[in-house]
Amino acid sequence: MTAVLATFRAAVLEARANRRAFWTQLAAMALNDVVWVIFWSLFFAKVGVVRGWDRSRVLLLLAILTTGGGVVLGLLSNARRIGQLATDGGIDAALALPVRPLAYLLVRRVEAVNFGDGLFGLGLFVIACHPTPGRALVYLLGSAAGAVVLASFLVLVGSITFFTRRGEAGDLGFQAIILLASYPVDIFSGATKVLLYTAIPAAFVAAVPARLVDHLDLSGVATLAGVAALFATGAATVFSLGLRRYTSSSLWTRA
Amino acid sequence: MTRRWLPVAVASAARRMSRDRAALTVAFGFYAVVATVISTLWRTAANAHGGSIGGYSGAQLTWYLYFSEAAVTALNPRQIELTGDDIASGAVAVDLLRPASVLGVRVATELGRSLPRLAGCTAIGVALAVLTGGPVPAAAGLLLALPSLVLAVACNLVAQHAFAGAAFWIRDARSTWFLYQKLVFLLGAMLLPLQLLPGWLHTLAAWLPFVAMAYAPARLASGHVEAQLLALQGFWFLVLVTAAVAVFSAGERRLQVVGG
Questions:
Q1: Less CB within 10 Å around the terminal CB: N or C of chain B?
Q2: What is the ipTM of this complex?
Q3: Quick one: average pLDDT of B165-181?
Q4: pLDDT reading at A31 higher than 60
Q5: A68 to chain B nearest CA, in Å?
Q6: In whole angstroms, what is the distance from residue B14 CA to residue B80 CA?
Q7: Where are the alpha helices (DSSP H) in A19-132?
Q8: Radius of gyration (Cα) for chain A, nearest Å?
């Protein structure tokens, strides 16, 4: 655990080494997120309410998604690169160390630009989501649970590369879950909606936590926690099984 | 190298891209998901509000969004970052050794790489639009939308190179691709038609080149047979080429001075 924390600390210091670039990237991403606020404001100004979703609910969804996404893509940046690391031989460096490979890989790289997402999400919640101590607590815990689901899903689809030797599933999975999580889940129906609660658990990344912030209920909390635990266990298991098929390379610097 | 090599650069890049099945699979899969999600959103909104919004029916919005997404998804979204990195790192100096325009070869190569993606996305988009939105609103509009898509991609590529050319001066154009992309999303009317923007924003967007990059082909495909949109794209293409040539010419002179 100490080694993993030390690795994480080194990764954070590495990301902050060039402070000017760090803050520029952070600001650019936050500005990028503001555009989505503009889009949703324009959308709901035109259409009012769509299947129970209005502007304030979607902004809450956006706040949770950017907070959780900022944590995963910023602090656990390698979660989305497992497939690439598997094909490039980038896991060699982790195998030579006395740490759990997955834990080491996840904290090894910090992406400064996605800190902007996290800060934006926090700011959006404070400004536009009617924060109270109770709502803030559910928002933080919900964002954390959503982050676990997102990171686990990314590791899971990335680990498919160990078996197929191709990285398309990981790339597509990343694009799909981020995109689907950023829209109100109730605009979908039928098989697509089922998909969002099962194979591509986008609903649990932001929509379900957002619902809990507005209407807290114990069964919803238990479901979200259970899904997060299930995906985390599944991701660790698939990664471990995949690692047995991993073939080494002479590259040492990609992790 | 003379200008006759530009079609060769386009064709060879297109051939290489066609063989990269992994990249095409990801691009087509991403396009199918993103275009389906955004068109579902707008179609649901239209159906919930009497069947139309801003003069567009649910079916027209479906066709609009499949085409606006195709025009943008066909390109590498991080082209500004890649070109900017080549300039900032000095890698572009190798291009200067060729007896051809650096900008011309780069744009031609990227255009070639985009064409297989554009063709695939358009075919998928037409199939999905028929499936989810119904038959094409106007066959003439669809026919005009096809050359319009190519013009949209060309305008976008040239504009991205003009943006990336800033790296000759500021050395780091990486962050700007986020902002550029969002300008195309909103002012280029990729996420919503111009007619759904507030009046002042509609007027502003109509005067900017981003409308040539997504709005024009999407508007045509949604059943609005307005051939003048092709002329508008041609106009913006010439303006953007002039701007990009000016940026690269000035930048290349500066790069030679810096590089000795």
A1: C
A2: 0.80
A3: 75
A4: yes
A5: 20
A6: 20
A7: 19-47, 55-70, 82-88, 92-95, 101-108, 112-128
A8: 19
Residue A255 lies in a domain: no
Give yes or no for a contact between B143 and B64, defined as CB atoms under 8 angstroms apart. Answer: no
- Residues of A near B (CB-CB distance < 8 A)? 21, 24-25, 28-29, 31-32, 35, 38-39, 42-43, 45-51, 113, 166-168, 171-172, 175-176, 179-180, 183-184, 187-188, 192
Q: Quote the pLDDT of residue B260.
A: 45
Enumerate residues 6+ apart whose C-beta is below 8 A from A122.
Answer: A63, A67
CB atoms within 10 A of CB A45: 11
Q: Does B51 touch chain A (CB under 8 A)?
A: no
Dig out the tokens for A73 from the structure: 């893509």
State how far the alpha carbon of A242 is from the alpha carbons of A105, A227, A228, A234, in Å.
15, 22, 21, 12
Asked if residue A254 is part of any domain, the answer here is no
Q: Tell me how many domains chain A contains.
A: 1
pLDDT tens-digit profile of A204-218?
999 999 999 999 999
CA distance B151 to chain A (A): 26
Q: Does B166 touch chain A (CB under 8 A)?
A: no
Q: How many CA atoms lie within 13 A of B112 on its CB side?
A: 21
Of A24, A39, A46, the CB nearest to B186: A39
| B231 interface with A at CB cutoff 8 Å | no
Contact A139, A122 (CB under 8 A): no
| Contact between B34 and A51 using a beta-carbon 8 Å cutoff | no
With an 8 Å Cβ cutoff, is B170 touching chain A? no
Q: Is residue A92 part of a domain?
A: yes
Is A27 domain-assigned?
yes
